[in-house]
Amino acid sequence: MSAPPSLQLEPGKVVLTGTWTLAALQAQLPALPRDLEFAARNTPAWDLSQVERLDSAAAILLWRTWGESWPAQLTLPEALRETLNRVAKLSVEVPTSTEKARSPWEIPGRLVLAGASELRGVIALFGQLLLDLGHLLRHPADVPWREFGANVYKAGALALPVTAMVGFLIGVTISYLSSLQLRSFGADIFIVNILGVSIIRELGPVLVAILVAGRSGSAMTAQIGVMRVTEELDALSTMGISRTIRVVLPKVAGLTVAMPLLVLWASAAALLGGMLAALLQLDLSLAYFFDNLPRAVPLANLLIGLGKGLVFGFIIALIACHFGLRVKPNTESLAANTTTSVVTGITLVIIFDAVFAIMTRHIGVPNL
Amino acid sequence: MTALATTAVLELQGVSTRFGQILVHHDLNLRVDAGQIVGLLGESGSGKTTLLREMLGLWRPSAGLIRLFGSDLLAGGHLEQQAIRRRLGMLFQQGALFSALSVFDNIAFPLRELKCLDEDWIRRLVLLKLDMVEMMPVHASLMPAELSGGMVKRVALARALALEPELLLLDEPTAGLDPDRSQNFVELVASLQQSLGLTVVMVSHDLNTIAGLATHVAILAEKRIIAFGKKEEVMHLDHPFVAGFFSKERHKLL
Prior knowledge:
The complex is a heterodimer. Chain A is of the alpha/beta class. Chain A has helices at about 20-25, 30-40, 55-65, 80-90, 105-140, 145-155, 160-185, 190-230, 230-240, 245-280, 285-295, 300-325, 330-360, and strands at about 5-10, 15-20, 45-55, 75. Chain A starts with 5 loop residues before the first strand and ends in a 9-residue tail after the last helix. The interface between A and B is medium-sized, with 29 and 31 residues.
């Protein structure tokens, strides 16, 4: 191995020896810069003729030590001159962007503008989808059936196990906790009403929507985002294929169709879990449960639940596609948009659920 | 320089690579000495990039030994590997710039990872590297997505050079650049190699790049290195691939 970088103080001059490279310097930090500083203060004459190698990191160190000017006396071999020259000529001024004075209203103002811009984007995308639907009605051959089927399969069929499992466990939990309360009032049989209405009307759709927003919404945003990063969307456009018809519409339509079915499936699993828990906890027979369920829960509740599923699926897919198209070609933007997509999707689902609850407050409530 | 010339910077001994049933390299040998600029040539799909990845330790060969600076990269622990990796720089085909970081931060990243340089030192080094690859300080604040293809290559080269490597690996350094820019890039690498005394191994399909930059040529065909030597000698070799590759252009370039 070559000699480490070192300096000797000889009478009247500083002599540097060894290899002055970044790798070699690392071992000598922070002692070496201190020694150099000390030497520079006392001696104006430097001898670099015994330096074997000098790289730019070491050259910068020397240049800083010399106070950014050439020392009064310098013995410099020709081979090292260029490296030091480069450092000497370098301008260290980084042009900074001029900062404007900030008003306290700037941050809320920007947030409002950003929100308005997103809202405008979503509405524009929705309008484009309506126009596309009009186009497809006139040209049925262009309907992307394969993509539609693929999305129903990916967002719907592949989500069956997880929605069933979560639904079943929620059903067990609610049934178990409610039955403890009901038994203390001697109102055991009302477990059917509680489970039926809460699961079919409320929990089923919201639960599935949250699962699907995390599962399929994020996937849609990421997929469209990566297609943007890799210019696949532009490739589609150059082939004369509309990105909304081929990419966005099948996702939105697929999830809108798949969601009500998932809601039905998850609600059934939750009711099954609730029934089994009631059987074990309250000794309520399955036959009694099945007999009383239609009486306790009018059909309207099921229709409201399925309707919610339809709307939630549409919202989640539309939001996911919107944020997917907003992705800029870098990893940070992809991550930020995927996060925003899922958070916005779930928030909107809960807001719309509240709207549903208010609008349907007189419908489907059993008369006791 | 004569003392250095006897040290093998990179040594491949009996390297074999297998992907499932497909044998890509079989008993491949190559030795690169300090100061050489080696162009690695071969048909598409002959495993050039795979070989480059194996040199970097990103992919473990099925058999054989790869020595960088005299030691086996994959044999050592994390710290040994890190020490060896810091002595080489890699220019990926697409640049592989960190898209979430600005040009400045991309080049500063390996320097900051050393955790022993102060910010002023890093700033000067970054600006120096940018200057070396002929970019302006105003470009430092741009994001990779805002750069043109040629600028991405130059920033990636600046990042590869950040730690003052002794060995520079280039994967298709001029692919995707127009002839003019490609020529500039070749001259840039050549002048940097001159001033920094680098050893360079590059994979390229571009005859101009090989002709303008390489001192030595290695031909990868029939799953091994069939020829390695001075550019002029290898060019006249009697082998179907070599003859095909150099046939049309040979006279023009020589």
